[in-house]
Each structure stands twice: as structure tokens, then as C-alpha cells.
Amino acid sequence: MAESILVLTHADETGRSLTKLSMEVVSAGKDLAARLDAHLAIGILAVDSVSAAGTVGGIGAPVFGVSDEAFAQARYGTDIAGYEALYRAVQPTIILAPQSSRMARVAAGLAHRIGGKVDTHITAIRTEGGLEVSRWLYRQRIETVITRSERPWVLTFEAGVYPPFEGTGGDVVVEPVAVELPPKRTKVIGVRAPAQAAQTIRPDARMLFVAGAGWTKKQADGQTHALEAGELILGFLQKTGASLGSSKSLVDQGGDGQPVLPFLTHMNQVGQTGSTPRHAKGLATCCHGEEPHVVGWRFIGDRRAISLDPNCGWARGKADVVYVADAFKVLAKVNELLGSRR
Ligand SMILES: Cc1cc2nc3c(=O)[nH]c(=O)nc-3n(C[C@H](O)[C@H](O)[C@H](O)COP(=O)(O)OP(=O)(O)OC[C@H]3O[C@@H](n4cnc5c(N)ncnc54)[C@H](O)[C@@H]3O)c2cc1C
Question: 0.90 cut: is pTM over it?
Fold first, then answer.
């Protein structure tokens, strides 16, 4: 079957440029179109799709846009109407889209409306011997390979699978697509979000910093130093922009009445019963590196650890480099060096 591909994208909070993940899916579309020798089109949903299209300059594919003030907010009713209009304008067999919370909300509904199928959390595409896509299941333990004969086929892509498309700038001709929006039943009256500095989980950061339970355990002087630990960790995060992960033992301590780091929640937990983040580098500190924790590091490229224990799990082949040292001292020195560089 001759395939044709539509990449569905959406704007970021400014409403005038595409999200990083959307740009990654543009790369996926370009790659897949080349491999299948298929027709490629880009669909943009934004307040002003002409401005947002600036980022895909040089794509060499027709660009379609739906523009409306309503797209300033993620809203099921209006988003799905916009995407459906883009689909009907292009009539592709394959639709690639970002696995963003905004798109995840409408992807299944869109597939239903257009009489298609949907698969989500895609992490790889193969084209040898027919189109196959992969996703991970059961906490990243099972890789599933999916193929379908039904079309249209909606596929939402995880972050980090493709590099973001780098446009060459310049004007892009956007074909405006008319969309009839339904009456809005949801009105956004404001956004409550933690201050940027308080936001410790940063999926786009290059580095993951993991804090383990050792930070709140008794140290060589027989005392705990949770306050100092908190200051060192937050200082490091602020200076590097790293994302903060934690071991289960550390985040569980609040419930056990032991010293806690107040900025950590179960959302920070990495591992078998936590998250599996994707960062280029990872640094584990005061963490033993036990298997249920380290399985959450599956997608971390360069792994380092600071532990007092030369026999910790990291030292047994789970990290590229292990510094057998006191993390309090190491981090104080690193923060000092980072501070003097600025
Ligand atoms: C079913 C199941 C699911 C689980 N899921 C998860 C999960 O999702 N994520 C997870 O993290 N765990 C999980 N666990 C728990 C996991 O097995 C470990 O118990 C946990 O990861 C240990 O956390 P930790 O390494 O921070 O603490 P600890 O084992 O207490 O290790 C603390 C480390 O800090 C070091 N240390 C102390 N002071 C310093 C210092 N000053 N400088 C440097 N190093 C120092 C110590 O030498 C020690 O190695 C799970 C367990 C089970 C049974």
C-alpha cells in the first residue's frame, strides 16, 4: 500500500512556536517518509499557525495550519476539531504525533472519529519487511513490536526518540484549513503552577541527579544532616538545571518519621515502581544502586555515582564511573566550583 504521512504538531505555551517534542516528530515524519518513499505533510494547530510554522522552514513538505484563539489552551473539544480538520484536508494513511499530555488526551478520540486505529508511547520505527513500531510495556520490561493493516493509523511518539528538526528559517507557506469549533464548555480562568525554581522534575534537562537515602542517614560524626543535604542538592540543581530523581527509600522516609528532604515527593522516584526518565547523563549520590532502582536508568546514557561503599551496586557494572567518596564533601566542592565559574 502506498503510504502518505501527516505529522500533527501543536504550539507551545506562547502559541506561536512548536513544542520541542513536535519538532522531534517532524524529524520522525521526514525519516519515515524517506524510508517508505511516501508523501509527507505537516499539520500545525496553534493560535497563529503561520508564526508557528517558522520553525519548520526548509522542511520541503506542504504545511497545513488551523489557527484560532481557542488553541491557546489545551481543550479536548477544540483540539480534536482542529486535528480532525487537518486530517480531512490531507487524508493521510499514517499520522505521527507527539506523546505530549495535550496530544495524549485527544489521540484515541481522533482515531475513533476518523475510523482509524491508534498506538501510543512509540519508541522506534522499523520499515524492513513492512512498517513496524515498538513500545515498552510492564514498566519498560517488555518491548512490543506492533504492525497493523488498518489505516489511518495514529502513532504518538515518546520524547527523545528523534532529534528535533532543525529548520533553515525563512518563510513557510501555510495552507490555512477551515475548522468549525464546537461551543466551548471549558473555560480556563488561570494556571496554578509551582515556581520554576521549585519545579525539580525537568524532563528536558541534560542531566538527572539522583538523591539516595544516604543523604539523611547518620554520617561519620554520628549525626544526620538533612538540612545541609537539602541545601547542597538544591544548590546543585539551581546551578546546573539538572532534573531531580530519588531512590524509593528516600521518598518513603517521610511516612516513616525519619529526616526528610521536603522538596522530594514520590513523583521524583526513579526505578521499578517509579519513573524511567530519559536524560543524556545521570549522577547518583548517596544511593546504593540496587536493581529495583537501577532499572529506572534504562535510558540514561552516561552513568556516574558517588557512594561511600566501594561494593555498592553501581560499582558492580551499573555505572560507568563510581567515585568512592563522601557526597557531602564532593557536592560542596562542585557547587563552589560551579559558583565561581558564573
Ligand atoms: C518490589 C520492589 C520495588 C522497588 N522499587 C524501587 C524503585 O522504583 N526505586 C527505588 O529507588 N527503589 C526501589 N525499591 C527499593 C530498592 O530495592 C532499594 O531498597 C532502594 O533503592 C535503596 O535506596 P538507597 O540506595 O537510596 O538507600 P540505601 O540502600 O540505604 O543506600 C544508601 C547509600 O548511601 C551511601 N551513603 C551514605 N552516606 C553517604 C555519603 N555521605 N556519601 C556517599 N554515599 C553515602 C551508603 O553507602 C549506601 O550505599 C524497590 C524494592 C522492591 C522490593
Answer: no
